[in-house]
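Anyone up for a design puzzle?
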């Protein structure tokens, strides 16, 4: 199963809107005879790829799958049919598929055909691998990962707004690895105007869909000469503007390839609902402090990563990482669990999951 999960992760950036799935076929003697992982464009699922490699050696064997095989006709024929036809006698799966078209039906089909089914092996690891997919299937909203780069005293820029660079090259490389895992990336207009970022995935890893770049810009202040606007015809840029945004500015940006969504961006629930309707399963929020605070105040952050640099910026006017309303009492502060701490050059990466939050 560890190998199946390793294979599944090879599909990172290549499966959305589907899940990461890996499969290992073992013959009756316990020898691995087939492996496969799912990639959206190849259409075939991990199980059928692994079975095709195994051939007749699969008969009487066991299939280790990181996610429940599907039993319905979608883009492909049911994987359960393929497993049954191949003579697989036992299926070991980590977790049930949260997709309502699949959930539990795959296991039921296999059991009805006399296949032994075991569920739960490395379930936590499998759920983490597909955390964005599972969250989207359960809520219809994208999984929100807040990523910030801060100094030791919690600043994201100096009092003059300079933020290049808060962290070192190792942290920035890691940030691009994170971008590679997500469907969309979001910033506020303050960050867009001060930093003039590209917000592209420069991980050099292949991806199926281009990273969707989103700017929250109530008054439509995004400069036409910004790098985001200049590259809007190369990779998608969506600006969430207020309903009263100037029509001339709308036409100007749209003529340059920017998509304008006039619905206001003060309600993060509505914003995530809109992205969910667009099949955006995962969203990386990169700031600034106002956007971070808005999502944290709403309880809509599902995962947090802070890169902390060993430097002190100082200054009461230097912006901190998280704005918004915040909490009144320390006991109400957002507490992370399942925390991982990793050295990135001279910086520290702290990643965890909110102990309590709204889905």
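Challenge accepted. My sequence:
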């Amino acid at each position: 199963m560890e190998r199946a999960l390793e294979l599944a992760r090879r599909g990172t950036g290549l499966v959305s809107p589907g899940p990461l799935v890996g499969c290992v076929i073992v013959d009756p003697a316990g020898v691995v005879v087939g492996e496969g992982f799912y990639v959206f464009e190849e259409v075939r699922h991990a199980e059928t790829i692994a079975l095709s490699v195994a051939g007749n050696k699969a008969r009487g064997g066991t299939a280790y799958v990181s996610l429940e095989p599907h039993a319905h006709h979608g883009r492909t024929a049911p994987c359960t049919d393929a497993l049954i036809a191949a003579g697989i006698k036992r299926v070991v799966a980590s977790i049930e598929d949260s997709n309502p078209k699949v959930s539990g039906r795959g296991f039921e089909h296999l059991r009805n055909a006399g296949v032994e089914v075991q569920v739960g092996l490395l379930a936590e690891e499998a759920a983490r691998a597909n955390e964005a997919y599972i969250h989207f299937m359960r809520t219809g909203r994208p999984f929100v990962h807040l990523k910030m780069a801060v100094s030791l005293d919690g600043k994201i820029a100096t009092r003059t707004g300079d933020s290049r660079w808060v962290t070192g090259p190792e942290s920035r490389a890691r940030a691009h690895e994170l971008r590679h895992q997500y469907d969309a990336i979001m910033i506020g207009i303050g960050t867009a105007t001060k930093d003039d970022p590209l917000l592209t995935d420069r991980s050099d890893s292949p991806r199926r869909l281009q990273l969707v770049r989103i700017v929250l810009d109530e008054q439509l202040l995004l400069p036409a000469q910004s790098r985001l606007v200049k590259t809007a015809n190369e990779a998608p840029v969506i600006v969430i503007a207020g309903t009263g945004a100037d029509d001339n500015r709308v036409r100007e940006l749209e003529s340059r390839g920017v998509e304008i969504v006039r619905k206001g961006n003060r309600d993060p629930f509505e914003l995530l609902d809109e992205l969910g309707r667009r099949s955006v399963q995962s969203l990386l929020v990169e700031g600034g402090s106002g956007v971070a605070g808005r999502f944290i105040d709403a309880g809509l952050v599902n995962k947090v990563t802070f890169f902390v640099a060993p430097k002190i910026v100082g200054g009461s006017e230097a912006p901190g990482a998280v704005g918004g309303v915040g909490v009144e009492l320390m006991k109400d502060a957002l507490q992370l669990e399942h925390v991982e701490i990793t050295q990135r050059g001279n910086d520290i990466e702290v990643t965890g999951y909110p102990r309590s939050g709204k889905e």
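A detail worth pointing out: The mean pLDDT is 94.
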